[in-house]
Amino acid sequence: MKKKTMWILTINWLKREFPPRRKTYVRTASAERDAGYTALNNNKFIVIVSGDFNFNTRMDTLLHEWAHCLTWFGAEDTTVHPGEWGLSHAKILRAFEKWNYGQPGELP
Ligand SMILES: [Zn+2]
């Protein structure tokens, strides 16, 4: 499976299995901060994933940022990771391993 396909499948899977309360867009860009970040813009979540890293890091970043979308309380500082974020992140990671891009078996 091509990485581009894996990426799109994962975004669709996240929207289906872990829908945020607001419309959510994912963009790959050269993030000046870290490997990525999430912002609330016009009542929509924008997840920016830096294209400066390899595929596995970009995927980790996407799953990390998605947990921010699910546990957004308001005026976020997404450098902060409260317990709610941790629980949400763990749920996403476990489900992601089971899902394995919709193929039989789990990720190693
Ligand atoms: Zn974070």
Overview of this protein structure:
The protein has about 110 residues and is an alpha+beta fold. It has one domain: 2-Layer Sandwich (Zincin-like). About 45% of the residues lie in helices and about 20% in strands. The protein has a 3-stranded mixed sheet with strand order 1-3-2, with helices on one face. β2 and β3 (about 45-50) form a beta hairpin. α1 packs parallel to α2 and α2 (about 55-70) packs across α3. The radius of gyration is 13 Å and the shape is globular. The mean pLDDT is about 90. It binds zinc ion. Zinc ion binds near residues 64, 68 and 78.
Short précis:
By secondary structure, the protein is α+β, with helices and mostly antiparallel strands.
Q: Would you tell me the overall average pLDDT?
A: 91
Distance between the termini: 16 Å
| Structural shape | globular
- What's the architecture, going by CATH? 2-Layer Sandwich
What small ligands are held by the chains? zinc ion
Radius of gyration, CA atoms, in whole angstroms: 13 Å
Write the H/E string, N to C: HEEEHH
Structural domain tally: 1
Class derived from helix and strand content: alpha+beta
Main traits of this protein?
three-stranded mixed β-sheet, Zincin-like, 108 residues, 3 helices, binds zinc ion
Helix-strand blueprint:
Layout: H1 3-17, E1 24-29, E2 36-41, E3 44-50, H2 55-70, H3 83-99
Parallel strand pairs: 1-3
Antiparallel strand pairs: 2-3
The structure holds zinc ion.
